[in-house]
Amino acid sequence: MKEQEQSPKFTYLKLRYIGVGEKDEVQLFYYFIQSENDPDRDPLILWLTGEPGCSGPLAFEVEAFDGSLPSFVINPYSWTKIANIIFIDSPAGTGFSYATTSQGYINSDNKTAEYNYSFLRKWLLNHPEFVKNRLYIAGDSYGGKIAPMVALEIAKGNEAGLKPRTLLQGYIVGNSRTDANKDNNEKVPYAHRMALISDEYFELANSSCDGEYVNPDPKNIQCLYALQLVKECTSHISENHILEPKCKFMSPRPNVPRPVQLSLEDDPVDLLSLSKEEQLWCRNYDYVTSYVWANNETVQEALHIKKGKITEWKRCNKSLSYEEDVPSVLKYHQLLNEKDFQALAYSGDHDLILPYMSTLKWIRDLNLTLDEDWRPWIVDGQIAGYIGVGEKDEVQLFYYFIESENDPARDPLILWLAGGPGCSGPLAFDFEAFDGSLPSFIINPYSWTKIANIIFIDSPAGTGFPYANTSQAYNNSDSKSAQYNYSFMRKWLLNHPSFLKNRLYIAGDSYGGKIAPMVALKIAKVTTSSNDSSEDKNINEELNCGGEYASPDPNNIRCLYALQLVNEYYDHALSYVWANSENVQEALQIRQGTKTDWKRCNKSLSYEIDVESVFKHHQLLNEKGFQALAYSGDHDMIVPYMSTLKWIRDLNLTLDDDWRPWTVDGQIAGSVFNSRLDSENSCKINPTNEGAGHAAPSYKPKECLAMIQRWLSYIHYRHSLLMEWDDLQN
């Protein structure tokens, strides 16, 4: 620690105790770090950590743990870059703080606030040079409940003339506890909003529980049943961050072979039993290193920890004696607001412990005047071969085909249709880091070609490398795309008869998900996905447009302004460099002169959306007993998962399995349900992919590979889409 104190990276670091209480019977440990910017002028922040009994956060990061004493590295985003911060272990029994009497270990909300105020006054008396600095009280989680209480104590102390008089400016709370009952009551609506529970489960809970999910009537059996369903869907979710793995520290996995996977569900896996290649990053690992560091004798000596006072440092003391004697701090927020103190209330939008919806609720309850509308805020600018089709093969469709790495002769054959229209098909590889030269490929370890033969096609003409011999052939539409893709498939199989007996699936994401059932229906000889274009867009926005977002009233300025705020851009620069290389095009056998410039998405493509909805195609395929997998990334705003759920519900299928989580390596990967017609033949499975966006496999490759692999194992072979050789000759 002496080396750290002398490090030029620190302006000043101090670690000490300050006694509070009538006889200083409570000894609160703190460490203080001066601002790296301008300590004399930068604000002073007293930081209160969350959860009574949990030690304050470290302003440093720990290097990769190798079994020795952990080493610190500077956190490049520490708030000490711009502020002087006092990190305090409070109340007694937390971290290195202790009491000299048993009575001193009995804590409560009011006592904690009082002692923190006493601590701050004594600290400022010992450091008078910081009395003139702007002061803020900050806390997250449960500390966010205590922060406004301490701030109000300081305000009252200033009004009473207590010394030293501080320059209190306001307070900061993050995902803060405000009212336990109201905060926890927002968990069910939040879980529904984040696709952790189904519409049916939420509607059942909402209607039967009358909005009371924390303390329901014990005689209300329907409500209790609904809450049990909610619990089953969320019990394996990491509540701190719903997209992070929920980690366990258990004994190694028993040496028992795993059964054949016949559904999307995954057997629980102990985290520590995974190989190094399989192991997931867990926030818990960072906490483990803090135990090793804080309980080291040399460290405790450098920290001036009083010997014999702390037998074992714990990050969170679960045995702390603590009374929550203040049910709600809403009145504290109100009083501070009336006194014109500034407040910053922030929330992580993936927190299930204290959902952002609870923060929004108590802020609305303050009845404040809205200065500015809800808006984004940004940091660093960031909110092969050809087959001819057509009457005279005037359209030349480019494709590349990759055999399955498993068993090409038996594994299914998938025709993959990319989104767009006008966008080139996805690559089955990953790019290495770009160094300015021709980009190099590396194999995607989660490519679906691990278990299937896949044809990636650029369609229609004008997309990627495909071209047309006539200007008329560049005029495209939904119907023409479906017809040409079907023709392509027939010709491809005629050229590759060894794949005729493989199970065949037509797949597509985004707009390709609209064309896929049209192609499948043509193959079937009858004559989440963009299903109905207006329906998908209408779910994106909810205000100002009167329910019409796809074709709004041009005179509705508020609606047009709202829609203008929603925009996304994707950068695929590496693919441009690679695909426009002469050497690459020569290796791909791209016909010279047919392409002046390869574009991933051709925005000038002539394309008519002549099929408004493919709902009837889904119905007809379902009635014929074909299997369907409809998946959605739950963080996609282009085609939201809610639109996928809506058109599936409109099919009026029978629900085989309730909405439930599905897992990969013991971690939640999303939610799933099975549905079918009133027959044994047709089944539609709809999984959501947790944390995935548009084109889910590119965001969650490992989970999506597991999804497709399990689905292919689950369905019956006799219902696969087969094309017989005789049919192709007709």
UniProtKB/TrEMBL annotation:
The keyword rRNA-binding does not apply. SUPFAM superfamilies: alpha/beta-Hydrolases. Gene3D superfamilies: 3.40.50.12670, alpha/beta hydrolase. Keywords: Carboxypeptidase, Hydrolase, Protease. GO terms for molecular function: acyltransferase activity, transferring groups other than amino-acyl groups; serine-type carboxypeptidase activity. Signal peptide: none annotated. Pfam families: Peptidase_S10. It comes from the Eukaryota. GO terms for biological process: proteolysis; secondary metabolic process. Belongs to the peptidase S10 family. This is Serine carboxypeptidase-like 18. It comes from Sesamum radiatum.
